[in-house]
Structures are given as C-alpha cells and as structure tokens.
Design a protein that fits this description.
The chain has 15 helices and 22 strands. Helices cover 34% and strands 22% of the residues. Strand 9 and strand 10 form a beta hairpin. The protein folds into two domains: 274 residues, Ribonuclease Z/Hydroxyacylglutathione hydrolase-like (Metallo-beta-lactamase, Chain A, 4-Layer Sandwich), CATH 3.60.15; 182 residues, Rossmann fold (3-Layer(aba) Sandwich), CATH 3.40.50.
Length: 464
C-alpha cells in the first residue's frame, strides 16, 4: 500500500492525493488549483490519467480547492462513487453548480472579446457536468463505517473546519498487514464559535495533516470582535464602505455571526449589511438545515428560531442588476461578497471603484494564496489589476487572520501530539501548505517528539 501526491503538495490549493491498496486506487479530494491564472488553468485541465481510473473518491469537505475538480473528473469518465458527509453533499450541490456557471459565463465573456478568433475558450466543465458529479456522491454520517475499496474501510470524524468537514479515517488491510491512515483535509480551531472542535482519532499510524498556517499564530480570538468593531466604526465615520471578501462557505457565516454579536452588544452602528453573493445566501440556508453539525449554542439558537446569521440591517443581493445598483450607491455600508481570494465573484465589481477611495476599508478574513489579488492586497501593493485594468489602492487594508477557520501552528502541534498520545503514530505527512510553512512546522513537531515528518512533493510515492 502506498500514497502518491499531486495537488496541495507544496501549495495550498488543488488538493488531490492517491491511495493504492490491494491494487485498488482511492482518491483523497479532487480540488481546483487557484492562483496564477495561466498555471492554474493548465493544472485544472491536465488531471493525471490515473484519476479517472480510480475506484472511488473520498471528499474531506466542500471548499472548491478540495472538491472543485470533481466535475472535471466525471466529465472525463470517472465512474466511481464520491463519499462525503451529508452536509458536504448538500453544499457541493450548490457550490459545484455555481462554479460551473461562473466558468461558462467567463468563457462567453472572453470569447466575445475574442470575436473572430478561432481560439475559443472552453469552461472546465458545465452545469450538467456538476450535476452529474453530485449524483455520484454518497453521504456517510460521522462515525459510521463503510467498505470503500478492497481492504479499505472508511469512517469520518469531525474536523471542525467548515460545515460537514471531516477527518478521513481509512482502516487498511493488505496481505495481513493493517494500517490506519487519517487525512485531515483542512483542520479547524477550538476557538471558532460556529462548530464543534476537531476530534482526536485513536490508533493512527500515518497522519496526513494540512499546514496552511504552520509557521504562524492567529491573534487571540477574543479580540477579533473588537477589532472588527473598530474597523466598522472608523470606516462608517469617514462615510466609507467596509468591503469583506469572503469564501461563501464558512467565512461568510462567521462574519455574519460576528456582526450579529456586535449588534447585540451595541458595539457597531446599524448600517445596511449587504450579502452580495447568491452562493453565500444559499449556503447560509444549508447551515440552518444542519444544526446537528454546529456548536451547541448556535444549534440552540437555530432550533429556537433565533437566526444567528441575520444581523440588523442585513439585505440579500441576488441579481446582477441589484449588485450594480449597490455599486452605484454611495451610502456607507458593509458589503460581504465572494470570492475569498479576490480572484472572481462580485467583490471585483466593488473593487473597481472602491479600492481607489481612501474612506473605504477592505477586511481580509482568510488565507490568500500566492499570485492572487487578495495576496497582493495583503502584501501592500499600491496598484492592482481588476478585470484587466490598473486600479490604485487607497482604501485601508485590514488583515483579520483571527477569523480563519484553519488551525494555526499551536493548534496543529497540539492536534498532532494528541493523535500521537492516542496511539502509535509512525509518521506525519505535511500537505496543504507553502514550503516555508511546512518546513517551520516540521521542525516544531520534531521539537515536541514527533520525529518522522515528511513534506509531500508532487509526484512522490510514499510506502505505508
């Protein structure tokens, strides 16, 4: 039995790993690459041939950098099942369809600009491809066991990252040898108020662990609400707007819940809060459908019909016309829009004008991969390109990593140590992190007694 790494092995997007046991291949995730557009487009179109021949796929959670290439896989002939938790299937049903719709719209726009050219742009996949991929998804609740391949039994445990996210536990048996493999997908934090904390799986032999923030610590979560309140208050006093680019899944709901808490305490003015993301609107409704997957106090509020995702003044913006009208309006407000790395979605419409105004603020609430517009804002670029045009950046840029749903360095170390104490951990494999992050985390893990740490590289095979 062995592992082979392809995506999120030296980076933080395109999660894709191959597990071979008893001459059967299982895929762990199949996500979209994000970042430099030409390179990402090439990688997303050139999935390895072995992916389509795999028996089954196990999906850790619904974020597109973990799930977004599943329709490409199905389009190319993959006939296996996709196993995930019930909330993840529900989320994928809207997220993959939305991703396909955006790709089709982008292709039409680019082909219109290239009118007369024979070099036509094709979307990675269509809405029909996305629907066919969801039809292959089989829901498996937490803590249930299911045989998913020859000598491979799957069970899911809570990873505390987003709604439905799971630690993938695979009990493997080949030629009399047994091996328990756990893949974290993305690992959550104990501090986040929406979800339960990550579970500790016993008797793990190999732990494949994400390392997004392996070289840094998040600010104390207790200070995040106050920091967000300060940003909102100062911006509104200037007559400006607060732009919050978010992932539609989890980050949007965390921000809404934070604004709800601040409004309840009277710490922010009651100004319009626009959710300019049809996907975030749909996902928020799915959160309400799965209170069993949320933290106890949030679950109680939902069951008592006390909506935790509806701060005063909140308005949904569904259609493009309303979005454009919002951009034309100059009233002070808070705008929450996709996408999280500022590479697409309606946040770009707002940035076309909003970035150039000193009175406005941009609040970065999550990780921004290399080469993305979001990373350039984080790094302090004074000029960025939005829809092919240069835009001066005069708005104030604020970084609130404390709202991140990813474990930080301390969280990752504590999780790995707890796994080691719960059994005979032989090896930790670090994925889903830039090289610096993984190298620093590897040294920290060795300092606490976890000596066998491997940094996964694309194309490498690891014997179990």
């Amino acid at each position: 039995m062995h592992l082979e790494f392809y995506g999120a092995a030296g980076g933080v997007t395109g999660s894709l790993h191959r597990l071979s046991v008893n001459e059967t291949d299982l895929l762990l995730d199949c996500g979209l690459f994000q970042g430099h557009r030409e390179e990402s487009n090439r990688l997303n179109r050139d999935l390895p041939d072995w992916t389509t021949r795999a028996t089954n796929l196990v999906l850790s959670h619904a974020h597109l950098d973990h799930s977004g290439s599943i329709p490409t896989l199905v389009k190319r002939g993959f006939e296996g099942n996709v196993f995930c938790t019930p909330p993840t299937r529900d989320l994928c049903s809207v997220m993959l369809r939305d991703a396909a719709m955006i790709q089709e719209q982008d292709a039409r726009y680019l082909n219109k600009k290239k009118k007369g050219s024979d070099d036509k742009v094709e979307p990675l996949y269509t809405i029909e491809d996305a629907q066919r991929s969801v039809a292959r998804m089989i829901s498996l609740p937490l803590h249930r066991e299911l045989l998913v391949g020859s000598g491979a039994t799957l069970s899911f445990f809570n990873s505390g990252h987003v709604l439905g996210s799971a630690l993938v536990c695979l009990d493997l048996k080949e030629q009399g040898r047994k091996h328990r493999l756990v893949f974290t997908g993305d690992l959550g934090r104990e501090e986040l108020p929406l979800l339960e904390t990550p579970e500790i799986v016993p008797d793990v032999d190999t732990l494949i662990m994400e390392s997004t923030y392996g070289d840094r610590l998040h600010p104390n979560f207790d200070t995040i609400d106050d920091q967000l309140a300060d940003i909102v208050n100062s911006t509104i006093e200037r007559g400006g707007r607060v732009y919050i680019p978010t992932f539609a899944l989890e980050r949007a709901q965390e921000v809404l819940y934070a604004l709800e808490r601040l409004n309840e305490k009277g710490k922010v003015p009651r100004v319009p809060i626009f959710i300019d993301s049809p996907l975030a609107i749909a996902i928020t409704e799915i959160y309400k459908l799965h209170p069993e997957s949320l933290a106890e106090d949030v679950r109680k509020r939902i069951l008592e019909r006390n909506d935790p995702f509806s701060p005063p003044g909140m308005r949904y913006v569904s259609d493009i016309a309303s979005s454009r009208a919002l951009q034309e309006s100059g009233e002070p407000c808070i705008v929450i829009a996709g996408s999280g790395m500022c590479e697409g979605g309606r946040i770009l419409f707002h940035f076309q004008r909003g970035l150039a105004l000193k009175k406005n603020s941009v609040v970065i609430v999550g990780f921004m991969a290399e080469h993305t517009l979001g990373r350039k804002l984080v790094e302090g670029y004074h000029k960025v390109r939005v829809y092919g045009e240069d835009v001066d950046v005069h708005a104030k840029i604020h970084i609130l990593n404390g709202l991140s749903a990813h474990a930080d360095q301390d969280d990752l170390i504590q999780f790995a140590r707890a796994i080691a104490k719960a059994g005979n951990l032989r090896r930790v494999v670090l994925v889903h992190g830039e090289d610096k992050s993984r190298e620093v985390l590897a040294e920290k893990l060795k300092e606490v007694g976890i000596q066998h740490v491997t940094l996964a590289r694309r194309g490498e095979k690891l014997e179990l």
